Amino acid sequence: MKTDIQPVFTVYLNHIQSNYQVLKTKVAPARITAVVKDNAYGLGATHVVQTLYPTCSEFFVAYASEGAQIRPFAPSASIYILQGIGTDDLKAVKENHLIPVLSSLEDITWWNNLGITDIQPALQIDTGLNRLGIRPADLQLLTPEQRQNICLFMSHLACPDTPTHPMNTYQRDVFEECRKMFPHIPVSLSASGGTLLGSKYTYDLVRIGALLYGITYPKSNDLPLKSVLNIQATILQTVSINAGESVSYGATFTANHPMKIAIVSIGYGDGLFVSLSNKGRFWSNGRSLPILGRVCMDSTICDITNAPDLRPGDLIDVLNEIYTPDDMALDAGTSAYEILSRFGKGIRFIRNYKK
Predict the structure, then answer these.
(1) What is the secondary structure of 187-247 as a DSSP string?
(2) Burial of 129 from C-beta contacts in 10 A (0-12 / 13-18 / 19+)
(3) Known active-site residue 219
(4) Looking at 2, 94, 200, 249, which residue is catalytic?
């Protein structure tokens, strides 16, 4: 048996670089920025930033602590803090020259009272997502000085993954009206999903996260993006079972014919969704290996009847260029974003980075 039986998490940094170049061409003349929040969707923010910088000189994170973490690897980049900041973040903001994204009148008043003159904040408005953002009507309450003392005017789309949804046009129209109050200020409406809606949505700057990491749902034939993550797990044991025997907790799968099964070293403790029980699949040399029974904490069982050459110690694919996070998300009933985020928090993976 192989010495290393823990699952293996491999990120192809060269594919991230390739995707960046494809997207840069796609959105031109708009600027492309990289969203590296949540540890670059679990892929490793410091690795991703080092790969893209200085070709990419603008990054978005959720929290000031994330911005401080990547600053040493992008010394002259603009780093935006999407969630805004609190009093406890001020030291990190000042020392690392981080740009807070302000989302309310209270945020703006608080920031102005701090007297920080060497950092211009960004301003986010709510055009219909009803998440973070100042209400359009409240923009009238800003002074001319407050309107000009920002480096970016931005919003966020609610339904970009549904191109025909009327919310897209509605939000763009609201954004168009509001931006008139901020002449000469760069503006940004779209993240990854909005990029696929066309040039009317790209404006001056687009914030790319999912597409950069190969998440392409809904699929777009004109974007030759590469899968950036491969996850493999080791076969711990193979077993032959007879018709009538059940598999895993709860006996939710019963064989109706003789089968060969493999117990594989990955489970929900590593981020594999329990909802993939009796639905998901693993892969070996292009062969689909259906998951049988309930996903366990440390292991999962799959059908290798059609792959009789597999032996204990062999590595099989959990995610690859054939079965991507988008595909697993469909089987698991979730989003590809959550697939990456969940696996990215797995502390038991052996992590590899390919340049």
Answers:
(1) EE---HHHHTT-GGGTTTEEEESTGGGT--SSP-TT------EEEEEEEEEEEEE-TT-EE
(2) middle
(3) no
(4) 249
Angle at 45 between CA 40 and CA 51, to 5 degrees: 110
Q: Is 37 a catalytic residue?
A: yes
pLDDT at 332: 97
Q: Alpha-carbon Rg of the chain, whole angstroms?
A: 23
**Contact predicate 192/26, CB 8 Å:** no
Q: How far is it, in rounded angstroms, from Cα 108 to Cα 117?
A: 14
Contact, 35 vs 334, CB < 8 A? no
Q: Determine the pLDDT at residue 219.
A: 65
pLDDT beneath 50, residues of the chain:
none
Mean pLDDT of all residues belonging to the chain: 95
> Cα 274–346–99 angle (5° rounding)?
115
**End-to-end CA, the chain:** 29
- Please say whether the beta carbons of 81 and 110 come within 8 A: no
The pLDDT of residue 222 is 75
Catalytic residue chosen out of the listed positions 37, 41, 203, 213: 37
